[in-house]
Queue: 4 jobs
Job 1
Amino acid sequence: MQTSAPDPEDPVGPGPGGPPGPVGTRATTAPQAPEPPASVGSRFIWLVTLAQGGVFVAFITPLAISLSIKVEQIVPGQNQYLGYITGAGALAVVLTGPFLGIASDRTRTRLGRRRPFMIGGTLLGLVALVVMATATSIPALMAGWVMAQLTWGQALGNLQTITADMLPEHQRGKVAGLVGFATQIAPVLGVGLAGGLSGDHLLLFLVPGALGAVLVGLFVVFIHEPDSRGMDLGHIRVVEVLRKLVFDPRRHPDFAWVWVGRFCFYFGLTFATTFTAFYFAHRLGISLGEVAGVIALLALGNLVATSAGALGGGFLSDRLRRRRAFVLVGSLFFAGGCLVTAVASSLVPLCVGALLSAVGIGTFAAVDQALVLDVLPERETEAGRYMGIVGFATSVPQAAAPLVAPLVLAVGAGGSNYPLLYGLAAVVTVIGGIAVLRVRSVR
């Protein structure tokens, strides 16, 4: 059976409503695996990159600096509340993420399965930013952050799932590299915006959100997703939904090892980044408002470092057809940056540690995302479900690490044992890199 060659600028590969794959010539042959999706065009690549970067600008900027400024305004000197707020938001994602992933898989609309969640998540995400910007108490600020995690998280999650739907293997490293670069420099851009808006708490939250909404909107408008109304999805019972929240690691061992590696890396990453603004202020003896300016200046160096890690790792992993080594290298770079930061006592070593960590984050984030797509089980029918389970590996650490971190900080140093915190972050991230070496189906 022959089909016409795909248009290189057409972003949509064969989808659930598309033409069937090749049929075996004999009735006795086993069912063949579905054809891999066709190559996507440059329009899809650039718009999905910009959209994910926009989401990160919108709701990672609060995590990087805006929440710290707001907490300091509401309860001066009580930085432990930042950990409680970020932990609550991540816990909400843990409890809802896979359910929403399953709902995305089973959505039937003219717009497809993923785009309705992008639209709803973005619009409600803007409301969440207003709630945070106008909050006058810790419970209100926490409620806004939980809402932001759920809404912007859905926009981001479905942007990632649509890459699982549409990307062929030979483009995954490239796209993951570009997206990794965009999502790592996005907080840098957000912190730069925050540095200039720190005097206006409403704009501090809403300007990054508006940028994110515009970039997601461009993707929704210009990227077609197949109409899902004709999909035969059948019925599903509540007990079956609950079963779909877990998977059997014996059936999917490579997926399990990638999950463990990501969990460990993001646990260490959350350890090291949640209290960055407070740590810089502590080490340099300056206020949080002044820290925003310092971090904004450091952003230029981080931009170069993250670019080198994400683009270099993503493109080279495609070219060399190797993922595991790059994931390990990323974790080692990040760990090295944590150790330098742990012993730093002035601005220069703090900057060196941040730059090393940025290389590691860029490399790990890009190549690990490609590795996830390589080992994703049941891609054709349940990509949203398994991407939701992958989300556990990010959201659980984001929920747990901020709650554990204050206990670590309190060990023998009056609540400011940052060297121990960054040292533990280094150890945990290296364990994550080593775990990925157990993957067997991908080099």
Job 2
Amino acid sequence: MGANFTINNFSVVVPIYNEEEILEDSANKIILISDKLSIEYEIIFVENGSSDNTKKIAKKIEEKNKQVRVLSLPNPNYGNALKEGFQNARKDIIVSFDIDYFSESFLHSALTLDKTYAGLTASKQLPESIDGRKFIRRVATKMFVLILKILFQTNLSDTHGMKAIRNIHVKEQIDSVISTQDLFDTELILRIERSGQKIKEIPAHINEIRPSVSLIYSRIPRTLYSIIRLRYYFFKEGLKTKNL
């Protein structure tokens, strides 16, 4: 099966926080779709500050599956959890899944990625995409993308959600990333794009298996502040480059 792949091994990174209700079932599904590919892989679950049994359940999954590693951080922070997983990933391409949002077809697309692309994202904004999220979350995504296009001149139509990035480009950029929480993966992909690399987008198909665990109304002010802060840092870095 792996003979058709352009990439022969992969890492999956999954941040987890207070996921005891769905962790075991979703983890087993991610393991199953990874096993079916019959190539070398690892799955890294990054628990961050859970107050329920998430860490204990994750450790049991790790004990039963040699391809699974569990990392743990003391405080809840989605972006830091992703960063920890990306920094510890050992394979040629790193696939970012959420415990409630993953896709076998996306994994196939990542492993057949053309060599001209540094990464792959699942965009909710493409005409062929199916976005089953609530209206307010769909509107928030459109506004978020518009702001990114205005402030960062990105060609990407969506930077949140599933993505796959070649590890070599992650290692080149990750130490420069200042964002945590909601913007870590957005900043990482923007930096890779700004370095001259090409990112491929494919349609996303989203059907939420449970309500979002984070309240969008609390995320909006935090995200806006983080975007403005990031634009300031990019501006400073641009000045430094011109002065060289």
Job 3
Amino acid sequence: MKEGIAKPQSRQIHVLSLPHFNIKLPAMVIRLFQLLAIAMIAIGATAFAQPRDIPSSREQVMLSYSPLVKQVSPAVVNIYTKRLVTTRINPFGGDPFFEQFFGRSFGGSLNRQQIESSLGTGVIVDAKGVLVTNAHVIKGAQEISVVLTDGREYDAELSLMDEQSDLAVLRIDTKGEKLPYARLNPSENLEVGDIVLAIGNPFGVGQTVTSGIVSALARSSLDINDFNFFIQTDAAINPGNSGGPLVAMDGSVVGINTAIYSRSGGSLGIGFAIPSEMVATVIAAEKSGADNASIMRPWLGISGQAVTSDIAESLGFDVPHGVLVSKIHAASPARKAGLKVGDVIISLNGRKIHDLAEMKFRLATVPIGEKADLKILRKDEEKTITVKAMGPPDNPPHNKETLEDAYLMTGAIIGNLNPRVAVELGLDSEREGVVVVSIEPNSSAGRLIRVGDIIVAANQNEVKDIGDLKKQLKKAEKQGVFDIVIERYGHQSRILIR
């Protein structure tokens, strides 16, 4: 017996002996029994002689994954990228003779450029050559090559990269040739315990299929992308699987494999996939002509907290779920629809809301301009309000400006904080004031502040807009004293330089 193959058990037929009775039966009855016996023998022979066939039902598919793999794998591609990396090296670095006399900085440094290659996986979602992968697979790539399972190779171009969701859309020129593609299906149809397949190119060994189950849904306790809402599976996912499909038993793609929990770099049976609903929104944005900077998602303009067990008890909930609204922006579409502070949002478009991460994800899958139904609980009474999905308003105008000759803030690009800027930087949309949008390389500002820092005060004067900050920086340069208060990650700190 070969290892891993179970030998079939022998079939034993037991004949029951009956007592002999001298009873004469009518000829017609005897003939009937003879016909029945012949029919049973014929049925049995047919059953044993029946050839193996491709499973045609869900129950039959459970016997083999081969039909699913044949259906989906042609649409799964290997992605190879090349990027030019510049590193700084010191020709005398590490030499103890020179270091003892001249220090480690002796000899200066040289720039060395080298080509860095990486690999990943993608899945074709349109016969015309549209495919999806992870943003981190192709980020910074100068060259992208796509290789199909049949050996065909194409150069691919990045059409849209959405780092918020860690998804990217590539396009390849097929010269009119139709490519095999996979269809997306809502991950909402999944249940914990359902069997799924992961297809990818782990460690560059070639296309590999692994199987497992859905370990959990709506995983939100991670920090992988801005939405933190994932399908968890124990199907083996390893480096190189990133961007590959998570496949349900009907042959549809229900997620894009994106990360693993591992201490060694290999699979420990804890993998995470981006739900297909988010994938569909990114594909739709690409087809509508959105670029990397213009992809926009709905904004509610509220702040809140997850309903804890204590809050649930006070509200009369059997199980903690929902989001308790604590703040509402003046321009919030939810405010216009009737939402109030103290309301508890318990579902969105019929989908139960468990926490803030789930609400953010559910809202992000609603197209701009369409309407979403929010079911809320207000003073023991359930109500439904309809909110029109809109992007964050760019009001007041952000007026981004690069600071020049601005004392120790030279090189900082600042802007007035408004909902759109706050969303871009991952800040509370309720905040106002001046925020650091970016910092020029090797500038003096980079030594003191970071992107996302909110300038609260300067020279002990409140900073409300860019004009206030520039005025105080000029004053600081004359006095020779740099004194600002910044807010970072919700904590304020003071920088004082005399």
Job 4
Amino acid sequence: MNLAFSTNAYKKTTLEAAIDSIAAIGYTGVELMADIPHAYPPDMPPDRIARIRTQLARHKLALSNVNAFTLFAQGDTYHPTWIENDPALIQQRITHTQNAIRMTAAINNNQPATISLQPGGPLGSIPRDVALTRYEEGLRACLPLAQQLNITLMVEPEPGLLIQYSHECTDFLAHVNHPNLKMNCDLGHFYCVGEDPAAVLRTCAPHIAHIHLEDIPESRVHQHHIPGDGAMDWPAIFSAIRDIYYKGWITVELYPYETTAEQAAQKAFAYLQPFLK
């Protein structure tokens, strides 16, 4: 199994410092945050991309995923979303995603890669059918470029957003029916909405292109914790990962730990080692 760590826990440091830290701990992959203060595409000219590529190679660190979920550079955690009432805001999200596709392809030397995306956004007063149509239209504006550059876009279900349950995601993926659109399977998110992460892995296996993991407290409140500090059943989860013969990347995502990112990454790495053997 391939274990990576997301730079979005390292928001108090530079992207380059985050990569050095993650490599030093022993992870073999890194997920890049496609937003400020890290790999926001407008801040990634060709010379910086080349330096990041060299840095990854020096550490023998692979790109596990590019996380384009947030857009703090233009809004907040969720906004602008794919489902805004203002078409100009939707276009900001589309343009950001297209820029992330180009950046990811450049960083990864045009080899296959994945980008995780928000699952539409908060519904608010928007009718669900309208929101789903807007989301689909936005993704279809990005998928041709993704296919051209060998990038898989991934819907990441999240509690409280347009798509939060596994069946909602698989139904949507089946409807869009595009080879470059898959699921980012965030196990903690499914636990939050009352699903069994191990069962989701088995049921959704054909749709999964990447796995996010974090622990969640017994309350199922959406708060990312270091694996082992919550209530999730890790032996069952890793048994399911083996049962479905998953060979892709597993990225630990602990964005709330920005003031203790390195310590959180170290603790997660140590806790997960027995499950990886």
